[in-house]
Automatic annotation (TrEMBL):
Protein's name according to its UniProt entry: UDP-N-acetylenolpyruvoylglucosamine reductase
Catalytic activity of the protein: UDP-N-acetyl-alpha-D-muramate + NADP(+) = UDP-N-acetyl-3-O-(1-carboxyvinyl)-alpha-D-glucosamine + NADPH + H(+)
InterPro entries listed in its UniProt record: FAD-bd_PCMH (IPR016166), FAD-bd_PCMH-like_sf (IPR036318), FAD-bd_PCMH_sub1 (IPR016167), FAD-bd_PCMH_sub2 (IPR016169), MurB (IPR003170), MurB_C (IPR011601), MurB_C_sf (IPR036635)
Organism ancestry: Bacteria, Bacillati, Bacillota, Bacilli, Bacillales
Keyword entries, A-Z: Cell cycle, Cell division, Cell shape, Cell wall biogenesis/degradation, Cytoplasm, FAD, Flavoprotein, Membrane, NADP, Oxidoreductase, Peptidoglycan synthesis, Transmembrane, Transmembrane helix
Organism: Saccharibacillus brassicae
PROSITE patterns (UniProt xref): FAD_PCMH
Length: 340
């Protein structure tokens, strides 16, 4: 066995339920699952997948992904969520793709930089945020990104490729990354001011932020943990900006974290003039149940797992909404949710 093969076998877990890697808490056992810690390990996984004829599927925190009830044995599921790294550079902050976006809001809190407040309690990893231009009200990843770093899934041997903001082709929940066989491994984010820190203070800051990470896809635990961190920071003397408090009120009020879900299921169609949640309300679908899945009774664009839901229950509701919206409003809503 070559050393590359050995590394592949070492990194690959067998028989892991994908449900523990998804905020839907849905997904069957994966024959091949890996959580690489470095970019070299990512390349090894990709090369191993090619030589074994496996189809790689990359994910982050699984907060926008519906995994299958019976995953194919020919798929390799892998996530970068254990690769968390920060580097402070003049005018920018390098962040690895596996870093939870909410940790960037904590970075902003500890350094007095407000640019990342919109990422507070935004579930998911930076890599996926860069991939789909994650958005909260009027703020989105494209506002803060300077350069994304990717590797080509089909040619990992070519190494790191830099993609400047102008090359990301960002739009509303759209990007070049959705059309290319690229894995985002990290990004430089713009800093409006450079934090005045010595190298030792910088190391301490990043160690502190990493210590706040809670690797979970269980939404109530996620919400409780990061709101507790904010309260702890306030007690330690950090000033909580109103934007951060507003996020808690808004997301808590919309009951985003009460049940397993992937947040909004469909992209808004801005030509219609009303968000998807309102359209679903207008056709009276709130509260509709299929098996263990339900269209939230608080927000028409969220489908929740109310206990024991399968991927099929969720996709049945997705199809129902698409059919009814097409009949009533003349367009088929495009899922934001990634259905594997
Ligand atoms: C309660 C709740 C609220 C939410 N609110 C919002 C919101 O306000 N705004 C918003 O935009 N989203 C929201 N979401 C959706 C989710 O937070 C975002 O889509 C987030 O970007 C997904 O991150 P993830 O790491 O979980 O991605 P995953 O679900 O793991 O993956 C999503 C997609 O990204 C791709 N991907 C993942 N990592 C990479 C990478 N490194 N390189 C290339 N492609 C990659 C995957 O292949 C997949 O296609 C919400 C979700 C929940 C559960």
């Amino acid at each position: 066995m070559t050393s590359q093969n050995q590394t592949f076998e070492r990194l690959c877990r067998t028989g892991t339920s994908l449900s523990v890697h998804s905020t839907y808490e849905i997904g069957g056992e994966a024959r091949h699952l890996a959580l690489p810690h470095t970019i070299e390990e990512v390349s090894t996984m990709l090369e191993g997948a090619t030589s074994k004829g496996l189809d790689p599927f990359l994910f982050g925190m699984g907060s926008n992904t519906l995994f299958p009830d019976r995953p194919s044995d020919d798929m390799l599921f892998f996530s970068l969520k254990e690769h968390i790294e920060f580097k402070l550079l003049p005018g920018r902050l390098f962040v690895s793709a596996g870093t939870p976006m909410t940790l960037l809001a904590l970075f902003g809190l500890y350094t007095g930089i407000p640019s990342f407040d919109f990422m507070f309690l935004l579930p998911g990893t930076l890599g996926a945020g860069v991939y789909m231009n994650a958005k909260y009200f009027s703020h989105q990843i494209s506002d803060v990104l300077e350069t994304a770093y990717v590797i080509d899934k089909e040619h990992p041997e070519r190494g790191l490729i830099s993609v400047p903001l102008s090359g990301c082709e960002y739009g509303y929940k759209k990007s070049v990354f959705m059309r290319k066989p690229w894995i985002v491994v990290g990004a430089d984010l713009k800093l409006p001011v450079d934090p005045q820190l010595t190298p030792e203070q910088t190391d301490e800051l990043f160690a502190k932020i990493k210590s706040k990470n809670l690797s979970t896809s269980v939404l109530p635990n996620y919400f409780r943990h990061y709101t507790n961190e904010l309260n702890a920071a306030a007690r330690a003397g950090y000033e909580l900006r109103q934007e951060l408090l507003d996020v808690i009120t808004d997301r808590g009020g919309k009951k985003h974290f009460d049940y397993p879900s992937c947040g909004s299921v469909f992209k808004n169609n801005y030509t219609i003039g009303e968000p998807m949640g309102k359209l679903v309300d207008r056709i009276g679908l709130r509260g509709t149940v299929r098996g263990g899945a339900m269209i939230s009774d608080h927000h028409g664009n969220i489908i929740q797992n109310r206990g024991g839901a399968t991927a099929e229950d969720v996709t049945d509701l997705v199809k129902l909404v698409q059919e009814k919206v097409e009949a009533e409003f003349g367009f088929v809503p495009e899922p934001e949710l990634v259905i594997v």
